[in-house]
Batch of 2 targets.
Target 1
Amino acid sequence: MPASSLRLDLHNHTSFSADGLMSPAVLLSVAKVKGVHCLAVTDHNTVRGALEAVALAEADLTLPRVIPGIELATEVGEIIGLYVWEDIPSGLPLLEAVTRIRARAVSSTCPTRTICSGVVPFPGEPERSQPSSPTSSK
Ligand SMILES: [Zn+2]
């Protein structure tokens, strides 16, 4: 499948978040109907919904692939962490939260690796170069 035809949704909540209405199973079913190939489950301050969604997707390969994640409250606001498989305490200073997310981000066993490879950067992969912005010559 060419990367340009992949449909990703990298910020989703389940009923494990106070503002999430759908169970992980319902979220995956809705995403499947909408043609999403891969989604990140990023509940507020917990990976429990993400881990349930990963288990559901692993048991049913017709469902979208799942990136486990978290939307973590820090002292300065919320940040999204992807490939996070363990809970991280909320309310940390931003740098500490980022450090912990990076330490917990493991992609080697991520079931989305084959479908998302080349589209979503994985922890440990070299940074991709960004297109250079046009520069004016005077
Ligand atoms: Zn959110």
Target 2
Amino acid sequence: MNRYGDEEFKLQYYADDILKSEGMQYSKSNRHHGEVSVYSHSVDVAIISLKLARKLKLKVDEKSLVRGALLHDYYLYDWHEPDESHRLHGFSHAKTAYNNASDVFDLNHIEKDIIIKHMFPLNLPLPMYRESVLVCIADKISAIKDYSKQMTWVREHKEALQKYIRNQDISA
Ligand SMILES: [Fe+2]
Ligand SMILES: [Fe+2]
């Protein structure tokens, strides 16, 4: 196996069924942070988790790590859409993701823990396995990456944005 692309290979090796599932394909159309889809974010979290485990030389169950990471945000809705049920998204989506994922996939105890605990410390139960801790950290790293991409885009388009705002007729 080549060093380059190891993680992408492992995603397909361990979780091709998840990647091709209807729910994951649907999550390509749901925005997560900025313009990043839930699908891209989930793939990113799985890759970061594998890289962290390798860098830290941790012995992990890679298959469970990958499958749990891919399903950690399997909540299957766009939380940006105004809807009463999305109001507590931050607190409730881990449980929703678990319920949806367990309807379709046979989850083991590590995968279950990864999904339910990934919002620690917003959701209080402590992650119980090193795989859950890795996904919890990878999720935060991925979110910071997404937001910093947005900030870079704003900086790069600052002049064009200012020009656009100046040209808007705000008296209308
Ligand atoms: Fe999440
Ligand atoms: Fe996430």
